[in-house]
Design a protein that fits this description.
By secondary structure, this protein is of the alpha/beta class. Helix content is 32%, strand content 31%. The strands form three sheets. It has a six-stranded mixed sheet with strand order 6-5-4-7-11-10. It has a three-stranded mixed sheet with strand order 1-3-2.
């Protein structure tokens, strides 16, 4: 199956040497079993990777832009082809119950072993819930979310990425792909079912 898709992409779309994301392999055969299928390919320079597969014809994919503030989290669901905002929403940052401001949260981590895990889980759960809320509002399937951009201050970056070790803030290890365009980005994988192949970019706020 992967060989057939790779050959088709090479011949019809001039995409040679396409790779397949690990999690997409699990959805590839069920999608193909229903007849025609659609695949999403992410290109980064000369590299190309199949990151999603759906049965039938799919002509739209979406991304989520999120501003992670110390008090509130705001998100927009956007059509990745047109850039149109399909839904918007927000919620309180649940970390606030462990510290009303950023320095209080840093102090919480320093005084409570394992506090960094707790803060990270709180904000990641809130992000997952917000994404579900946005896709429900726009009536878009969760597996259509293929890109997520998070913007926030450096401390929120650390708390989302869990870059705190030995109760101190470590310098994040930024990955800078060709598409960065001057902004630092870090790739993460969504841990929530339904958007396992979403690429998450964290940009300097």
């Amino acid at each position: 199956m992967t060989g057939l898709i790779a050959n088709t992409l090479a011949q019809e779309w001039d995409l040679p040497n396409v790779q397949f994301g690990h999690s997409v392999l699990a959805s590839l055969h069920p999608a193909a079993a229903k007849g025609n299928l659609t695949v999403a390919v992410r290109r980064d320079g000369d590299a190309a990777e199949v990151v999603a597969a759906w049965p039938g014809f799919v002509d739209s994919i979406v991304g989520v832009a999120v501003d992670i503030g110390s008090t509130t989290i705001a998100g927009h669901l956007c059509d990745l082809a047109s850039g149109a905002a399909l839904a918007s929403g927000g919620r309180m940052n649940p970390q606030i119950r462990l510290g009303e401001d950023l320095m209080s949260r840093v102090s919480y981590v320093m005084m409570n072993p394992g506090g960094e895990r707790e803060l990270t889980e709180l904000v990641r759960t809130a992000l997952a819930e917000l994404i579900v809320e946005l896709t429900d509002e726009a009536d878009v399937a969760l597996d259509r979310v293929l890109d997520i951009v998070l913007v926030g201050n450096p401390i929120m970056h650390h708390l989302v990425r869990w870059c705190i070790r030995n109760r101190r803030l470590d310098a994040p290890r930024w990955e800078s792909p060709a598409s960065t365009r001057g902004n630092n980005e870090a790739k993460l994988r969504s841990e929530r079912q339904g958007c396992n192949d979403a690429r998450i970019n964290i940009k300097n706020g």
